[in-house]
Amino acid sequence: MTSRLSLGQGPCKVVVKDTIDISGFPTCAGSAALADAPPAAAHAEVVERTLKAGYHIVGKANLHELAFGMTGINAWAGTPENPRYPSLIPGGSSSGSAAAVAAGVADIGIGTDTGGSIRVPAACCGVYGLKPTFGRLSRRGVMPAESSLDCVGPLACDLQVLMAFMAAIDPGFQLPKDSPRPVMGCIGVHAESAIWASIEGQLSRSGMARGDVALPLMAEAFEAAMVIINRETFRACETLLATGKVGADVEQRLKAAAAMTDAELKEAERVRRAFTAEVDAALERHDVLVLPTLPHFPMTAQDAFAGHQDLKISSLTRPFNLSGHPALSIPLEFQQALPVSVQLIGRLGDDAGVCRAALQLMGQVQSAGEEQQTGAKHATAH
């Protein structure tokens, strides 16, 4: 946590990533270059909605500096420890939001996700993390001010709690009633065999119908999303380089990002259109798509502190920032002391459908009457 505060009422506690404005507090984005930032003049819209819904904001959460890294390491503001897997990185960039939830400090962590920055730390820390459909939740008051990839979203240890929060801050988030069991489309991607074995076991236990899906443009979509995040983050943060206070890893990435060309950006936008169409077509044949959240297990914190980077850890999350589809990371049980998560991808705008499919996958589906009672209980427990 970067700062403690107490806003709103109710027992449900929320931490807010420090790229999101809270009135009266500076938004430092985990960077010494913004240490002297003035207090925010107004709440970000997601903060306004959270407080209006009766939640209790208890602090601002640390992150990978400037939300531009996947390990969650932060030499200036401090690195949140991974509560469930202490030897491993917490994941970035929403490391503090994931760690606070996993440690029980908060019921909800609000993060942002430009290339997996909610889902990767959720997977590393063994919690749920939702990247909503692009544009579903307002980014007013969120750094950077302009992004064609970034989404605000929640993390939680309990999927019902996460869903109740989404319903509380977004009236359009409503579970479909009595919907048929979804057909899962398993995307053929490369991931460690132990990760796929755990996912296959969960799919088999669920008894859900499934088919195989090929997304040939996945690798190109990852590279295209890298081009776009580099261009957009450089434009948002280039003035901070002159302070000399940006951490070495982020400074290196920003300087490299300056080399992105207009031609590369044009090609990335072409890939965005083609990959979005490819995902949409797969979702015409399947209700949700299934793949691992991470292609391999997270690196150790020791390796990250030694300067190692791992942008490829976002190879299975970042493409869906490019396409804008809703994506939910779900923690699974694993026989070894390592985190495994599965990711569900849904149709554009069908965030609630993705969450319901997750309930069915995890064997948590209730009857319609029980669902209404549970939703009401969570909605009034703030």
In summary, what is this structure?
The protein is an alpha/beta fold. It has helices at 45-52, 95-102, 119-125, 159-169, 193-206, 218-241, 248-257, 262-285, 301-305, 319-323, 351-361, 368-379, and strands at 3-7, 13-17, 56-61, 108-113, 128-131, 151-156, 184-187, 210-213, 288-292, 327-332, 340-345.
Question: How would you sum up this structure, described in words?
Answer:
Pfam families: Amidase (PF01425). The chain has 382 residues and is an alpha/beta fold. A hairpin with a 7-residue loop joins strand 10 and strand 11. The chain starts with a strand and ends with a helix. It has twelve helices and eleven strands. The protein is globular, with a radius of gyration of 19 Å. Helix 4 (159-169) packs across helix 12 (368-379) and helix 6 packs across helix 7 (248-257). The protein has one domain (3-379): Alpha-Beta Complex (Amidase signature (AS) enzymes). The chain has an eleven-stranded mixed beta sheet with strand order 1-3-2-4-6-5-10-11-9-7-8, with helices on both faces.
Write the layout of secondary structure elements.
Layout: E1 3-7, E2 13-17, H1 45-52, E3 56-61, H2 95-102, E4 108-113, H3 119-125, E5 128-131, E6 151-156, H4 159-169, E7 184-187, H5 193-206, E8 210-213, H6 218-241, H7 248-257, H8 262-285, E9 288-292, H9 301-305, H10 319-323, E10 327-332, E11 340-345, H11 351-361, H12 368-379
Parallel strand pairs: 2-3, 2-4, 7-8, 7-9
Antiparallel strand pairs: 1-3, 4-6, 5-6, 5-10, 9-11, 10-11
Helix pairs in contact: 4-12, 6-7, 6-8
Domain Amidase: 14-170, 243-354
Family: Belongs to the amidase family.
Protein name: Amidase
